[in-house]
């Protein structure tokens, strides 16, 4: 029963491609397909694809059969496309992440610059003593320049 089902499946799929070949291996094993593996005897069968009008479908030339890529080649190409697609997705995610970080840094620098421009007294840690104090004019000018530089770098 399995042999009949297997033969029916092979014949149905092979019929879609044109002429069905009977392939006999040296040990007597019989297989059907549109091409025979190396080392098997090839016999043509009377099974072929027919169009709806009953006319015989044209046979594919032997050159096109050899031009078809093997399963291993197609699988390798498929795997290569998958790897390339994953790399492109990772690159796009990394780019989106970098852009989001730049946008956040830009907004932070702009807010800090507005705070410096407002004239409000800002508290800061004194780097020498570690005490909390207010920004003097020199340090405010340095912070202003630092905020401007951050805006130039991140707000493009």
Proportion of residues in extended strands: 5-15%
| Spatial separation of the terminal alpha carbons | 72 Å
Give me the count of strands. 5
As laid out across the biggest beta sheet, the strand order is: 2-1-3
Nearest-integer average pLDDT = 81
Task: Please tell me what the overall shape is.
Answer: rod-shaped
The structural class is: mainly alpha
Number of distinct helices? 4
Helix percentage range: 55-70%
**How is the biggest beta sheet arranged?**
3 strands, antiparallel
The rounded Rg comes to: 37 Å
Q: Order of helices and strands, N to C?
A: HEEEHHEEH
Notable features of this structure?
single chain; 4 helices; two-stranded antiparallel sheet; 156 residues; rod-shaped; three-stranded antiparallel β-sheet; mainly alpha
Q: Can you characterise this structure?
A:
This protein has 156 residues and is mainly alpha-helical. Among the domains are: 1-44, no CATH class; 98-156, no CATH class. The chain is 55% helix and 12% strand. The chain is built from 4 helices and 5 strands; from the N terminus they run αβββααββα. It has helices spanning 2-15, 62-67, 71-118, 137-154; strands spanning 21-24, 30-33, 41-44, 123-125, 132-134. Helix 3 packs antiparallel against helix 4. The protein is rod-shaped and about 100 Å long. It starts with a helix and ends with a helix.
């Amino acid at each position: 029963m399995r042999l009949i089902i297997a033969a029916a499946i092979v014949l149905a799929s092979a019929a879609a491609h044109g002429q069905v070949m009977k392939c006999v291996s040296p040990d007597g094993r019989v297989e059907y397909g549109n091409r025979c593996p190396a080392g098997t005897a090839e016999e043509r069968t009377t099974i072929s694809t027919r169009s709806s009008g009953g006319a015989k479908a044209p046979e594919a030339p032997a050159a096109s059969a050899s031009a078809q890529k093997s399963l291993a080649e197609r699988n390798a190409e498929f795997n290569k496309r998958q790897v390339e697609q994953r790399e492109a997705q990772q690159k796009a995610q990394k780019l989106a992440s970098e852009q989001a970080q730049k946008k956040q840094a830009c907004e932070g620098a702009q807010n800090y610059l507005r705070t410096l421009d407002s004239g409000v007294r800002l508290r800061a840690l004194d780097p020498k003593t570690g005490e909390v104090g207010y920004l003097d004019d020199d340090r405010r000018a340095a912070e202003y320049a630092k905020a401007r530089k951050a805006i130039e770098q991140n707000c493009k």
